[in-house]
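Marked as duplicate of an earlier ticket. Keeping the data here for the record.
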Amino acid sequence: MIPGIAADFSQDTIWTTVVKAVLIVVFLLTSVLFAIWFERKVVARMQVRPGPNWHGPFGLLQSLADAMKLLLKEDLTVTAADKFTYLLAPMISVFCSLLVFAVVPFGPEVTIPFTDYSTPAQLTDFPVAVLYVLACASLGVYGIVLGGWSSGSTYPLLGAVRSTAQVISYELAMGLSLVSVFLMAGSMSTSQIVDSQTRLWWFIPLLPAFVVYVISMVGETNRLPFDLPEAEGELVSGYMTEYSSMKFAWFFLAEYINMLNVSAVAVTLFLGGWRAPWPLSAVGAGMLNEGWWAVLWFLVKLWAVMFVFVWVRGTLLRLRYDQFMVFGWKVLIPVALSFAVVVALIQWANRVVELPFTATLWVIGGVFAVLLALVWFWPEKPRPIGRKGGEEAVLDAFADGYPVPPLPGQTLPPSPRGRRTPIEHDAAGAVADAAGAGPGSAATETGGVLQKKGRVTGE
């Protein structure tokens, strides 16, 4: 048994490890197919629509039909693309996403049916397993940025840069939120963290860190309302714009596997892992926390967190990019860092004064109440003013040769077209006709909407 972890892998052979790895890959691939159907069905019910209901019972085979369509679709390669990197990028994303579940505990030690062989319901574990998860997530960013850069096109490059900045920013907040769990559990081993939640799940005393993690996991996976790499100023697929057929499907697969990854990490570190919720955990002297029952509880919690993803997508609107980045850097990261410092001080005080566990919970609850009050009553930042005192700045949207939207505190000048009355429109049309103006002439530009005489006069 490896010191520092709770699971015992001493009886596992090489064939046991291979079978576990294959089962994890099969589980992820089938879960992605189910997640696509699940998302479409739940969003449809929120919008009072039936959703997929044609292929298979309850439309369950719709995802399989979509996968076959992508598999058989014509594969195109952009002429200006860097061929090797263009093909490598989606492979990096998928490979890194498949690595995370290697250290996720599905349950305690289980017995294989029809045999006497027992093994932990986990592929492997080591004392710094959570750092391994963060490393895999960090390497997945290379697939995004290389996919956008290697396409040789403007929109994929912009989407890749936005996505890279977004993933890195929110991964920092996510990592800081996990520090509180490390301090409370005293370990970075996933099986040890689950074992430390026997008495209390960590999301209760570490609620601020849990909230930061939930927001960060949505931002890191580029999901609504944070899907800004795919659609901000343009309605295209961001870094995946120039991909088609199976190469596009690999990126799509990596996105949904990453959703499962962050959901599994949330369940393992904050929601008790495979442990049954109270009071079911006390039934039969903890019988529901043993064997294959524990695997069932893990899957129930996993899909409960996946439902949160779908619920948020069907409820909230997309943020503006500058608001999104300010929220990550100026709100989430300071809150997660401050709370980690508080938890560290409390743990140090426990070693010195030996406070009871209940007193520790009260102290953490008081800190959370103070943070909540600061956020609620924080004075609003005054809006920027223009050159004249108290006036908003008037923005020239075409100053740099292309239109840009106004920022808070800026206003666009009134439109000449909006001030013109119908009589003035008729007069401008008569002037344009008398001058013999064509669709691209200066007179037509002055008239604004004048392309033909019939549009203004109704003739």
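See parent ticket for discussion. Residues 416-457 form one domain.
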